[in-house]
Specification:
The complex is a heterodimer of chains A (about 250) and B (about 90). Chain A has one domain: NAD(P)-binding Rossmann-like Domain (Rossmann fold, 3-Layer(aba) Sandwich), CATH 3.40.50.720. Chain A contains 9 helices and 7 strands, in the order E-H-E-H-E-H-E-H-E-H-H-E-H-H-H-E. Chain A has a 7-stranded parallel beta sheet, sandwiched between helices. In chain A, strand 4, helix 4 and strand 5 form a beta-alpha-beta unit. The longest helix of chain A is centred in the middle third of the chain and has 29 residues. Chain B has about 90 residues and is mostly helical. Helix content of chain B is about 60%, strand content about 0%. Chain B is built from 5 helices and no strands. The longest helix of chain B has 15 residues. The two termini of chain B are about 10 Å apart.
């Protein structure tokens, strides 16, 4: 029980990768707050699974791209749990289109959820971490940020922004006992990747030296490692759990 | 806390102790801090990361929020400036 009674928030934590991360923390004894924006059904299912695992859990419905919503969400967690040790900024969306056809709305929305959401949640949580001189912020990025990918200019820009954000924030927080790192998940079996067409899937598999898509748990362990006490001297880094893809 | 906030001299002493304690300043005493000297750079030698810790401590202790960097710069100009800032905000919050 490495995370016994540690207090964790996972944004986008009720589906796919975020859910696997949330459940992994819960299995290790953490209190887990899972944020989601709209899918109440999967949120209820995740809530039920968490209740069976963790000592305490919270379901947090909020749009991470709206400052007031984020402040309210974090405020309600702090009211109930007093402080938070670990924040996993996982909430993310894709709206893939070649740039020529990428309209402003799809550009803005991806940047708002993925990058602005990471900024807003990190900002809202940092005071409680500073007060306790302990914290772990782990941001989920993507191979698209490191190598680029056609059709993902908006998504790769948002995830590349997250890497730069991670590195800069790590410099601000290092002296205060707070580490800030990123995890790069590679191509993982999630609802998001299920929507890819067959040709794209085959192309991806050919690019992965391990010859398989990752499982959400493969990434969850990387997140848990960076969140652990053992990783206290690691900050500003990008840890890829991607089967050798990057 | 209200008693301390209403007494400028006591508040300045409290703030000096708070700064020494929060930032774990070694070799610095309450008597060694000039209330009118700058807290940052040439004065106590604090930096912007120290300010983050002080912002959090002040909010926790006095329930006074330093909402942006400009306000912070004015508030942290010296111990006297910080005391005045807290007294003003504390009264507004009452």
């Amino acid at each position: 029980m490495e995370f016994k009674d540690k207090r964790v928030i996972v944004t986008g934590g009720t589906k796919g990768l975020g859910k696997a991360i949330a459940l992994s923390f819960a299995r290790e004894g953490a209190w887990v707050g899972v944020n989601y924006s709209s899918d109440d059904k999967s949120a209820s299912r995740t809530e039920a699974e968490l209740e069976g695992l963790s000592t305490k859990s919270l379901l947090l419905k909020a749009d991470v791209s709206i400052g007031a919503d984020v402040e309210k969400m974090i405020g309600s967690v702090l009211d109930q749990w007093e402080y938070v040790d670990i924040l996993v900024n996982n909430a993310g969306i894709i709206r893939d289109k070649l740039l020529m056809f990428l309209d402003e709305e799809d550009w803005d929305r991806v940047l708002e959820v993925n990058l602005k959401g990471t900024y807003l949640c990190s900002r809202a949580i940092m005071k409680t971490m500073i007060a306790r001189r302990f914290g772990r912020i782990i941001n989920i990025t993507s191979p698209s940020a490191l190598t680029g990918r056609a059709g993902q200019t908006n998504y790769s820009a948002s995830k590349g922004g997250i890497i730069s954000f991670t590195k800069s924030l790590s410099k601000e927080m290092a002296r205060l006992g707070i580490t800030v790192n990123a995890v790069c998940p590679g191509i993982i079996s999630t609802p998001m990747t299920e929507n890819l067409d067959q040709e794209t899937k085959s192309n991806f598999l050919n690019m992965i030296p391990m010859g398989r898509f990752g499982e959400p748990e493969d990434v969850a362990w990387a997140v848990l490692f960076l969140a652990s006490e053992k990783a206290g001297y690691i900050t500003g880094q990008v840890l890829a759990a991607d089967g050798g893809l990057t | 806390m209200e008693e301390i906030v209403n007494n400028s001299e006591a508040l300045c002493e409290y703030l000096k102790k708070m700064i020494i304690g929060t930032l774990k300043l070694e070799g610095v005493t309450v008597q060694g801090i000039d209330s009118s000297a700058p807290l940052f750079r040439e004065g106590l030698g604090l930096d912007s990361i120290d300010a983050l810790e002080l912002v959090v401590a002040i909010e926790k202790i006095f329930n006074v929020i330093i909402e942006d960097e400009e306000v912070g710069k004015r508030a942290f100009a010296s111990i006297n400036a910080l005391a005045k800032f807290i007294q003003k905000k504390y009264k507004q919050g009452k």
